Amino acid sequence: MRYLSKSIVSVKSLISRKPYFSTMSINLKSPVFAGNPIRSKTPKSTDPFSPTSAFQTLKILLSGQTHIQEPSSPKFKVLPFRKGRPLAGSTGDSVNKWHLGWLNFGDFKGVLEGSELKLSDDLLVYLGCESKEEKEDDSVVYWAIDVSESNSLVEKLGNRQFCFVELRTLMVATDWADDSAMGELAIAGHARSLLEWHNTSRFCGSCGEILVPTEAGRRKQCINDSCKKRIYPRVDPVVIMLVIDKENDRALLSKQSRFVPRMWSCLAGFLEPGENLEEAVRRETWEETGIQVGEVVYHSSQPWPVGPSSMPCQLMIGFFAYAMSLEINVDKSELEDAKWHTREEVKKALTFAEYEKAQKSSAYKVDQLCKGVGKGQNLASDFNVESGELAAMFVPGPFAIAHHLIASWAHQVSINGIETQKKGVLSRL
Length: 429
What we know:
By secondary structure, this protein is of the alpha+beta class. The chain is 26% helix and 23% strand.
């Protein structure tokens, strides 16, 4: 499956080439939160940077044997999280780019000294590795840890101009043309998913006993000898669909009360037991808008680790859904409104100046947080900076799969080798 295009177009270049209501599409190498650079390959169990081998080394380092030093290869780096927020810092350059607050293992142990948190191997979660065959000494194993119990670390790390930042804020602050930042965003998303899963999966659902981490934190297991149930990280599948009126060349967009002003998006809903993806698309569309859907065509998918902690990793599965009826009957308990929009209206809603404002505002916010200057603006205000003419409506930014569903239809981008014509996609699953 090809995700739009393998070229990257920077927001800055788009703005410079187009007027305020630019209608070009932003293309990414992979969906935001996908393309994790340290999970591209699974190392063999005998490799020193595999989960098994790295965890054994970790246990030795934490055993209290003072004569044992941190190994020269692979090196260990740790990313602390607090209340679901990764540690981040700002480069302080002219564009206020951020970076994750990785700490060398020895440095991290030093930071923990005198804090409320006692370091143990069951607190650290293996994230992946970066192995270099030509320079094995440069190989790195990456870990994540939840340090929410330690309030003193906030000040300690703040003195180094680090701050625990909401992942959603980092998402909006990311320059989508920056491969490094996109990779770090994917790593942080994966780490948050695992740590929040650990926090919400403490007891066995079969016998009620305690669950303990296994396989370097990638799994959990019941301690009851008569049970020993193994638990795997939770993923919640969500269908997200752009409903299309072929005959009138329109798309259905909706808004919820929690949305920022002027923003419209696709319909979405959780998969229920006993239904396939296409059935979920049809059911959710009918429940929320009263519209009957026939043909359902797959577009792409995206991990979404910025939902509530009770659902630490949603998998957004995107579709085009072709309407068989057109009359809208909005379920007000689910949506604030839903309307048909023409292709030209949707193109105007792809307002890149809005996204650039949000990106710059959020990047500045991260920079200020890391410098300890206030709490900055709230996220909602990032899309409402009054500067110049405002679009009548806009759709989610390029960090969301909804954007790419909408942009693909608006600009008739090829999906699975078939162009999305004005009368719809001409193939079935």
